[in-house]
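Late entry, written up from scratch paper. The run itself happened at the end of the previous shift, but nothing got recorded in the book at the time, so transcribing now.
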Amino acid sequence: MSDDPTDEPDHLAKGRMTIWEHLAEFRTRLIRSVVAILVGMVIGFFLYHYLLEFLKQPYSELTGRQDFLALDPLEPFATRLKISAYVGIVIAMPVLLWQIWRFVTPGLYPHEKRYAVPFVVSAMVLFIFGAAIAYWTLNPALQFLQQMGAGQVESFYTVDNYVTLIAYMMLAFGLGFEFPVLLVALQIAGVLTPRKLMGWWRQALVVIAVVAAVITPSGDPISMMALAVPMYVFYGMSIVIGIFITRSKRKAAAADVDA
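Output as recorded:
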């Protein structure tokens, strides 16, 4: 046995773990993730004023108002906690993604583990990009929803309802934009192949449309299209990336055989 405490045991390095070792590993990863979220929540709690100013920009542009309504004396404090929780998850996202990746890497070959950094970076970039798209489309979406009142209904938003809507929108878009990362990861693991994805493109059109309709909190067609169209593009990109990964895996396997 190596004297270096940083060396992994052979059964871990090769991905052969017992159920109890898997549970212990999961517990460790979960604790680290929770701690990261809590630290992010503390940061979000103290940045609440700046975050609320940023989030209310679409509301102010649409209504011309600068203040929200509160129908409950506890609503401002509850909203601050809610924003802190959302920010905590976003700040902890790199840690969460890294813990997820490290949890599944025992089942991957060494040449597949090199995708760890690209996996985390691309997932973060896509999540932020999705959240930004949701923020950008919120104003047109609210305008569309207000028009459904036929000019006879004046909209007033409470701080909790508005923050919940915009947070869920940004979260839904952020998760939706993780779609290509999931597809590429499944291709790396050998669960899916580019050929299968190409054969399922018709079903993918329907599934993506349904998913976009279900996870979009506002339910308006503007938000649904803003989410569905990029997901269609990501589906095609995932196939192209999967082809390159498949070729790389074949070359690596051939090199191992020759060696």
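Residues 1-15 have pLDDT under 50 and may be disordered.
(Scratch paper discarded after transcription.)
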